[in-house]
Amino acid sequence: MERMAEILRALFRRALREHGRDAGALTDIIILRAGDRFGPRLGAVFSNGYRAWAALHPTELRTYCEQHLITDVETLRGQLLREGQQSYARMLEAHVAEIAFREQWALVTGRMQRVRNEPPPSRLDRFARLMGFGRRSTLDIDDSKAAKRGIKLLEENLSPTQRQQYAKHRHFDVIGGKTGKRYRIHHGSSMNIDQLDKNGRRVCGWCFFPRGGLVAGDAMLAQKFALELFEIEALQVANRLYRY
Amino acid sequence: MSVHIVMDRSGDTRHEFDTGNPKALRQAEERFRELTGKGFRAVALGKDGGPGKLVEKFDPHVEQTLFIPQLQGG
After folding, report:
1. Are residues A88 and A140 in the same domain?
2. ipTM of the complex
3. To the nearest whole angstrom, how far is the Cα of B9 from the nearest Cα of chain A?
4. Cβ separation of A230 and B11 shorter than 8 Å?
5. In a domain, B32, yes or no
6. Model pTM?
7. Cβ pairs bridging A and B (under 8 Å)
8. Domain count, chain A
């Protein structure tokens, strides 16, 4: 029973990795009988049309059926779908929460960095704040203007494919100039780079960004050029974040 | 005309200079040296998102040079 749940969870993890926030709902489970070339397979079908497959061992299937007193494929499908939907709902909720946390964290660290690099307020500024003026610093006022400039500069320097990808998914892929590895830069200014394997799965995360508390557009463009033009040096200063 | 684009907190600051003007060229070269001396990386931008190229020495023929501040790990 545990083994089947594990297989389902692996399929769901794959769907969540591929589609992030846009992952669809689980709509069906497919059990394929063994064919000439393949053994039995288990498939998960999602509302966005995505399908994920995993190989099944006949003994795993038999054990599961015996434990649940299942004698036909249709009942097995129904049982797995019910279990899968519950498990997937929990995973989806946690996944969306993690994405939201990462975005929020990137925002917070970006702001902290900008504040750290902000010169101390002048006597006039301090006086103005004391008098109740200037509750918003010039940083806040210029924030959106700077952010827009940063995004414009980024978009001007992305390749057509990267631009399309960024417009659609708020991330774009970059090929490392030295190693040929594929990286995915998500919108943000820190903790926003994933290294992908040849199947597009995340291997680990990298965190590096330009000094000076730059806006997200600038940070992403700096990360893109760094990976394309001086990948090894960039990774030497970067922190490797996590493994999957 | 060429331009130096320096990334900063305002998004970027652009310094345009006339490559036919020796004084403007000197200033541009000085800016290049100063920024790269501070750890900025200079990248010659490609056209329409084409691949960029690292620039180690001041080159007046590069139309658009982007200056990226030194990187740090997070």
Report:
1. no
2. 0.96
3. 5
4. no
5. yes
6. 0.57
7. 108
8. 2
